[in-house]
Request: fold
Amino acid sequence: MSQRPGDRMKMAHIITKPLVDIAPEIIEQIRESTQEEGQVIVHCIYNSLTGGDGIRIWPTTYLFDLHSDHVSTLEHIEKISLFPIWTWTRPGDNLFTLIFSGLPKSCTVFDLIEDCSGSVGAFRVSSIKRTTSDVYYVSL
Reply:
């Protein structure tokens, strides 16, 4: 997620128990589609203290398997714009979703990295432990 020029690179962290209440039938539907499609879903939370921050995601955002040379590509985004267009935030939590191509079955740990070609504001989430659902929640 890129931020406006002048912002520093943020280290994001994994949320193990998100404060999001999702209906069980939706979770089951996601789980089934994840297994069928082989996709990885990453729900992201970006907190803006005042709102008006410009955020966007670069198409060069990937999942890197830490024990092989496999790279999962960004396939789809929801509630955030793709570089070069900005999405303007509101105060508080701003939620968006990234969907990636599947990881190999042998993958147990991976990194989520936005590669912005040296631009300011890129993010990195390191050492995400793989789950059977392949649905993750991160705070940026």
Q: What stands out?
A: The helical segments are 24-37. The two ends are 8 Å apart (CA to CA). The chain has one domain: 10-139.
